[in-house]
Amino acid sequence: xxxxxxxxxxxxxxxxxxxxxxxxxxxxxxxxxxxxxxxxxxxxxxxxxxxxxxxxxxxxxxxxxxxxxxxxxxxxxxxxxxxxxxxxxxxxxxxxxxxxxxxxxxxxxxxxxxxxxxxxxxxxxxxxxxxxxxxxxxxxxxxxxxxxxxxxxxxxxxxxxxxxxxxxxxxxxxxxxxxxxxxxxxxxxxxxxxxxxxxxxxxxxxxxxxxxxxxxxxxxxxxxxxxxxxxxxxxxxxxxxxxxxxxxxxxxxxxxxxxxxxxxxxxxxxxxxxxxxxxxxxxxxxxxxxxxxxxxxxxxxxxxxxxxxxxxxxxxxxxxxxxxxxxxxxxxxxxxxxxxxxxxxx
Length: 346
Prior knowledge:
This protein is mostly beta strands and 346 residues long. It is built from one helix and 24 strands. A hairpin with a 2-residue loop joins strand 23 and strand 24. The protein is globular and about 60 Å long. It starts with 23 loop residues before the first strand and ends with a strand.
């Protein structure tokens, strides 16, 4: 049976609108630059087993050849459902992208792809948020696991599963209502009739998956330094995608709710930068602000404590003329959390 697939790898940026929120966003990653993927340290060798790290890792542990022509591991995609894709902004960038992984190989096999976060120290009230969407469902529905390590970022150190998304099991079904399909244990995307874009019919009945938000309480890990692993382990399916990774503090919402966007409206202009770049951000209330720039190895290349700043729009000028060409992470630390965006220096 033919699998429906998407080969759109994109270079994207983001401008987000703010929403009133009850929770503080401490960590936010939108995966909204191709440079995020380029900043990942390695797609072949395993993460180094560090006890602390400021860097994301992508690891293609299966080393299988993808049947769709893509390289292994995680990479940037356009969202799979039309509702998750927005028009290009005035800056020429698409407002949304996702990071995803493939489980469709030349020879049927199980994927073993890891997206491993930096380390975070969990405090009381913290919760993990993210969104995910399969390329299609129910046929060839991709599953995955959200796992946690309390020791190192070695993929073998992830022994505890926080969440499991189910995958389709053989034999193939023949409809779009899920009634003729079998799935592994876990959450079955679209089974409740929500977060799907109906496109079915023909020889490969499918719905496109829409990005669905999830939340996991992290109270069992208060005081511990942890890593999170997005483990794509489907057998011979298509694609899985992730977006809007966050750690938030406060009372967890009832049920599954939409995750908030980047409250700071953080961006860098121009991007790519040559001699100078301006970091733009907005504060909802008075806050201490520190701006830090990291290179692809996680090394601090520039940092400035801006002191206490009032509510409103702010900008920070950076000299990038002496920075090596490449990709950088710009971090703005405020009283309500740390926000990051990507910068290219040419």
